Amino acid sequence: MSKDEDIIQKNLTNLDKSTCSFDLLYFSLFTNNHSIMLLIDPETGAIIDANSAACHFYGYSSTDLLKMKISQINTLTPEQILEEMNNAKNENRHQFYFEHRRSDGEIRSVEVYSGPIVINNLQLLYSIVHDVTDQRKAKEEIIALNKSLENKVVERTVQLLETNNLLHEANNKLEDTNASLEEEISERMGIEENLNISMLEIKDLYENAPCGYHSLDQNGIIIRINDTELKWLGYTREEIIGKKFTEFITADSQRIYNENFHRYLKFGWVKDLEFTLINRNGTQLPVLVSGTAIKDENGKFIMSRSTLYDISLKKVAENKLIQLNNDLEKIVVSRTYHLEETNALLQDEIAQRTKVENDLADQNQIMNTLLNNLNVGVSMIEAPSGKAIFTNKHAKQLTGCDFLPDLSHGSLSKAFPVYKLNTNELYPDDKMPIVRGMSGESSYVNDMVVVRPDGKKVLLEVFGTPVTDNSGQIVASLVSFADITHRKQAEDAIKNLNNQLVKTNITLEETNTVLEEEIQEHYEVIAELNKAKEEAENATIAKSDFLAHMSHEIRTPMTGVLGILQLLQMSELNEEQFHFIKVCMTSSELLLKVINDILDYSKIEIGKLEIEKINFKLTELISNIEMLFTPAAINKSVELEINIEENVPDLLMGDPFKLRQVLSNLIGNALKFTHAGRIDLTVRKIADYGNKEIQLLFSVKDTGIGIKPEKIKEIFKSFSQADSSTTRNYGGTGLGLAICKGLTEKMKGEIWVESTFEEGCTFYFTCVFEETEEGEDSKNNESQAIENSGAKKSLKLLIVEDDDIIRMVIEKFSIRKGWKVVLAEDGNAALDAYQRQEFDVIIMDCQMPVLDGYKTTGAIRQLESQSGKHTPIIAMTANALVGFRETCLNAGMDDYLTKPVEISAFYAIVERWAKS
To answer: CB within 8 A of 322, min separation 6: which ones?
Structure first.
């Protein structure tokens, strides 16, 4: 292997092992190189990439060339080509000689340097191609000439001189060829040197950029980080690589990170997220983070690349602006309600702002003094010689060089050039504080600009002070200086804010007159609002009374209807009669659902919906829902699939009834609007707050009719559906999703939808629950109801109900269970029956003539206080509004049963209280 080939091979091998941060550099050098370069798949011979020099040499466009295989260029057989590619891939050989065919059919002799390289985890062959047709022709001419000389040596002895001349010419050609080869080798070495320099420059730019860079894997583990971000965090690279990024940010930032990371994995980018980094010493730095996901050609996540910008100065400016805006808002509010005090408040505010500005100026002066004695550059020169005495480390860091001012050799501006701010003029020697200090003058300037060796301009604030001995003689000049580039920018920003404040004050003064004119109208509006408020409160009271009355009036006859239907279902019926009864039951249940939706919405609307906290098993709850909807899904040939991810705990504390209501509503809707396909319910954990609280994400996806984009924002509103045809085709009150929204918000969550019209939609909602462990006290009311309903003894019931039909229905329910029944049509009759005999349970209607259920219960409890016994009294009322259960319990009743009465619920509640 030649020397230049070995250098290029080592270079490309090193490039292959470099990090993906230098991929762009590599491909830039590849594309723009004057040498012919190809990237080839060693398994198929396909040309993966070719630079412009290759396109020019072979006469093909880049697009055409990338569709070809190397066998379409190389004149060898496919078997020979495969063997040579294996040699290059296994590094058995690096240098090859081939015949290559160009697009015009011309055959050119080429020398190829080839070897393996890995790019984006793909094993490829790189090939550097050199056209050696002319050199080969020259060599062939020499060979032919030598052969001719050997054949004719005897015959042309007499022509020896002429032959020697021919040989001399051939040697000259050979020397020219060698010179050309040496020049090409030199060019290759130059390319290698430029490549190394560029790689060092890019590495320096990456490590010392003014912003932070890092890369994370799909689990949020740091796999790469630059020096700038390491300085911000205060750790070494070894301490931070392999750890989660969330370990180095605040809790609030971790929450933002968790909320956005799964979406980041999905969409492949995030932009302008505000995080707060925690330094090793505990200090915090606010940063703005933008990230891009790096994926392979199959869309699989490889890693992330994130850029971080220091926004601490921006935060200071934002906080100042927010403070100013808050002050202005306070002024406007004060003027709206207290017009007579407006002018005085304005003067006070202006005085306060003036004081703030004066305080800021004082603080700047104090800060300048502190900088003189803290982290500042310091230098001292001898007087009057001007020789350097000392300079500190920070002075060298600020100027970027070994700053040792020395006036003994002439002008300071020549020894150390600095410039006046906003000009290209050298700073005058006699104005420099270090020179003025030698003459006994203390001075201060803030317009000196030094240009560092790296080209960066730094604005300096310089203090000059003469140094005297005990006799008062000037012995030296001392200067201290600091970088005030950022402070100058902040001062300019404050000046701009002050200018805006002045303009705002002028606007406020002009607004004063308008406010005075509008204040009377404002008072009139307040009076109208008070009147409207009173009317609204009266309307709310009327609405509650109306709902209570309607609940009672509708539920009372519904109890008779549903009770008779339930009794008929238990009797012997033919198939047609059973079908008729089933249709009636379905219609009655739909009507009852409409009533319940209105009542639930009323509870949410007035803010009296209560969330319980009881233990339950998530898998049991979802299994019950699945059993509920499976028959309807089978009827419609719709597949219902449940998927609970592994990290979701089964034992939870929360309100299972509200969760079941939301899930049933969403699955019921999905089933209603899906005529074919499938419905998927998925549960996953998306957040763990560390105090046993977790956040779960539920999604219900269907392949139904979908929702038009313009209608999505309306569907969670009350009495709203996707369009008017939905009500006609599918029914419903339009309250279901509004109730779901209210319930999820009560459970510390939110609900939203994604949909493609005529393809289906996915409803998402989140809830916060507490994790519990096996053995913790469980209070699942439904399970207890089922467990306690096992009492089998014959019971004696007193049924107090003024409605004949309902009284008959409850009596039939009881008789079918084998219980004895005594009937009473009002409170007085109930008291008479209670005093004559004993009962296991009393079923008490609340609203009755003569003596209502509340007063009757009070009378019974009064009698019991004398006898010492206690008979369970179960309230039975058509009123299901918020507060009625508490009213019943406060009146002395033990439990509460709403009309219409469902037979299994009636049996369970009676047996539970009879057993107790």
So the answer is: none
**Contact at 8 Å (CB) between 766 and 696?**
yes
Residues written for the chain? 916
| Pairing label, strands 638-644, 677-688 | parallel
pLDDT at 653: 93
Q: In this predicted model, what pLDDT tens digit does every residue of 456-475 receive, in sequence order?
A: 888 888 888 999 888 888 88
Angle between helix axes 133-152 and 160-207 (nearest 10 degrees) is: 160
> How far is the C-alpha of 415 from the C-alpha of 438, rounded, in Å?
17
**Distance (Å, whole) CA 284 – CA 232:** 9
Omega cis (within 30) before 900: yes
Q: What is the pLDDT of residues 651-674, one digit of tens each?
A: 999 998 889 889 988 998 888 889
Per-residue pLDDT of 839-861, as tens digits, reads 999 999 988 887 889 999 999 99
Asked whether the whole model's pTM tops 0.70, one would answer: no
Separation CA 286–CA 313 (nearest Å): 9
The distance in angstroms from the start CA to the end CA of the chain is 99
Write b or e for each residue in 790-819: b if 16 or more Cβ atoms lie within 10 A of its Cβ, otherwise e: ebeeebebbbbbbbeebbbbbbbbbeebeb
For residues 641 and 621, give the distance between their C-alpha atoms in angstroms, rounded to a whole number.
15
Tell me what pLDDT residue 264 has: 79
* Bond before 384 cis per omega within 30 degrees: yes
Is the dihedral angle over the CA atoms 771, 772, 777, 779 positive or is it negative? positive
> What is the spatial distance between Cα 246 and Cα 254, in angstroms, rounded to a whole number?
6
> What is the rounded CA–CA span in Å between residue 723 and residue 732?
12
How many other CB atoms are there within 10 angstroms of residue 408's CB atom? 12
Strands (E), 401-473: 419-420, 443-451, 457-468
Q: Give CA–CA dist 809/560, Å, rounded.
A: 7
Between the alpha carbon of residue 540 and those of residues 264, 536, 602, 728, the distances in Å are 46, 6, 10, 31
